[in-house]
Amino acid sequence: MLKVTINHSKTLDVKQEKNQILIDNQAFDWEISPLGNLGGNPKFSILHHNKSYNAEVIESNFADKTFKIKLNGKLLTLSAQDRFDLLLEQMGIKNEASAKVNNIKAPMPGLIFEIKVQPGQVVGKGDAILILVAMKMENVIKSPGEGKIKTIKVNLNDSVEKNQILIEFE
Question: What is the DSSP secondary-structure string of 89-100?
């Protein structure tokens, strides 16, 4: 089961039983046909109750389960919670994917080959932070989330141990 929120206001319960989709326990009868990636974004044709809709996926973040789509030209923001997200919410535990980044630790022992950031720099999730050489391979260490670099705890050519703090965020 999924709980899908549309534009931060309307929430629907979505589940699949056998070969049909139920929305708020009502069968959702539709036909969907992919139209390809015209213009870079996946596009679909949807037929529901003899009415045709054009859908385009503008943005998708599978880690956060958030999506932006255009449905007949109207922009919609969708966010989904699966049963595990709902259970964590009931227990008062936040999803770690949205947790604040405090620091980056070395994933393995190695040598600092290149530092790509400076204190005070704002980085986004997935941005390259530094390059760590381990076992003759260059490993790009990326930011696990958004944040502002507070301090860099290593220098070029430093040897580091596993779990050593490399970067601290504000």
Answer: HHTT---GGGSP
> Contact 119/166 with Cβ under 8 angstroms?
no
pLDDT in tens, 35-72: 988 677 889 999 999 999 999 998 888 777 889 999 99
Residues 68 and 19 in one domain: yes
Q: What stretch of H or E contains 87?
A: helix 83-90
Residues 77, 55: one domain? Answer: yes
Q: Residue 85: enclosing H or E segment and its boundaries?
A: helix 83-90
When pLDDT is cut at 50, 70 and 90, the band that residue 84 belongs to is confident
The torsion angles phi and psi of 161, rounded to 5 degrees, stand at -100, 160
Q: Which domain holds residue 85?
A: 2-96
Give the C-alpha separation, 88 to 96, whole Å: 10
The conformational region for residue 82 under phi > 0 = left, psi -120 to 50 = alpha, else beta, is: beta
